[in-house]
Amino acid sequence: MRRSSGTYRQRAVALAAVAALGAALLSGCAEDSDDSGGSSGGSGGGGGKGKTTITVGTFGVFGYKQAGLYDEYMRDHPDIRIEESSIERNENYYPQLLTHLGTGSGLADIQAVEVANINEVTTTQADKFVDLSKASGVEKDDYLPWKWAQATTEDGRTIGLGTDIGPTAICYRKDLFEQAGLPTDRDEVARLWAGDWQKYVDIGKRYMADAPDGTSFVDSAGGVYNAVISSSAERYYDRSGKLIYKDSPAVKEAWDLAVSASQAKLTAKLQQFQKSWDQAYANGRFATVSCPPWMLGYIKEKSGAKAEDKWDVAAAPKPGNWGGAFITVPQAAKHKEEAVKLAAWLTAPEQQAKVFQKQASFPSAQAAYRLPQVADARHPYFGDAPTGKIFAAAAKGVPTQILGPKDDLIKQNITDIGLLQVDQQGKSPEDAWKAATKTIDNALDQ
User: Fold this and answer.
1) Span 84-131, pLDDT tens digits
2) Which CATH superfamily is domain 6-166+323-375 in?
3) Which of 81, 161, 403, 421 would be a feasible disulfide site paired with 48, CB 3.0-4.6 Å?
4) How far apart, in whole angstroms, are the C-alpha atoms of residue 220 and residue 158?
5) Are 100 and 128 in contact (CB under 8 A)?
6) Which UniProt keywords are listed (predicted)?
7) Closest by alpha carbon to 307, among 283, 331, 327, 324?
């Protein structure tokens, strides 16, 4: 079965863990008829006769309904009703969106776009979306510059407003670090590898020298690769849009470090988001994993009560990003003016902070980091770690990444074919790289 994209994983994980993490962190558009079917947003009801219905098309879980934002907006705008239609998997959602854009029909008033697809939409479909940079209430400086840039065209039109992001840290087991003779304080741990992913691998070798029986330093070679590549600006494409992954210095660094971690026997030889990975959390089989905010609930769920206060969170060697999305307003939206107002409101810093508090979706609006829901966020399961401050600092340090239309496909095959062959099958790095690149080139018709 084909592994789904990283951001779909993000949303699925956030859904599964929403209750636990929230507590810890303090098709078509039409005028509404006489049908009193109610809103997908929640109670906001009373039928809908005479109201304007704004439709929202998403994939997975964006958290607006769960955080009560639709109901809040409808209370403040009694002439508006909001209906959300969600397709679970982005690989099913995105082709439908492209089809609707091509025909100019069947589009919701607001359409979500995943980060893996935003480059393709921005470079090839921008004329089919409203420029949201001009919307009332939207302030460019409220958002992280790198996130804003991802949905901005060369001529300065911003077609998508950032919803969430996935700034990365390192989650680590304090008990295993202590048994291996390493520091356990999160600030001291962060200093061990600050500024250099090679230091992270070197600390792994120190860990393994006195590792508790049956444990490894890190979960997988693919996990190491993903962590390293997520902190790089130019990866699979250059600024002109040329495919460069075979000669990319960032890909080479991430590949070499992942291979070295595997060959030094630092990994538990797992594949992320598989059952064996989940079981390894429960059994305490590895000591570190790269983790965005949305993964904290997943770790808590899979590790269970017996591991409470054994996990902690430290800054990664370099800030990276894993996941995120945008919302857009198509030019063909039936209620374009009202949709723009709603999109601006949903992505405002105050609303992003509310979604984070309820859903663990980390805000792309940097102005939200000053709000108490983010600034004061701590996670008791992870030793009361100041997660709001840790992830906000990471978010501000993420480089402006050059995105390409097939980033996700390339990364998936490098990790799930190439590095998996090295890590689990003992194949040579040269043969594994050839296998990965052959599959990628076939998929890209190279």
Assistant:
1) 999 999 999 999 999 999 999 999 999 999 999 999 999 999 999 999
2) Periplasmic binding protein-like II (3.40.190.10)
3) 81
4) 37
5) no
6) Signal
7) 283
